[in-house]
Amino acid sequence: MPAYDYHCKVCDVQFEARHGFNDPMPPCPNGHDDVERLITTAPRVLQGMLADAGHGGTATKEQLRSKWAEETPKLREKLVKKLGEDVVNRNAPSLNTSYD
Ligand SMILES: [Zn+2]
What is d(CA 1, CA 84) in angstroms, rounded to the nearest whole number? Predict the structure, then answer.
C-alpha cells in the first residue's frame, strides 16, 4: 500500500500514512479528522521524468521545457480525473505553470 502525505487543517501538522487511495482520510497524529491529502508524488514523478529527459545533465533548458510542456498536461489530466479539479489546483499548483 502506498504512503501518502497528509496535512491536518486543525493543528497544521503534516504526516505520512500508508493508506488506500480511495479509503477515508486517516486522522492526524493528534486525532483530528479534518485532514487533506497532499499530492507530493506528482512533483517527484515529474522530477524523475525531467531527469530522464536530461540524460545526465546534457539536455538544454529548452528540451526540459518542451518535455515539461508535453508531460505536465497528461499528468494533470490523470490527477484531475482521480482527485478532482479543486484538489489538483490546491495541492499541485505547479502543474498549472510552465517549466522554468
Ligand atoms: Zn491535527
Answer: 22
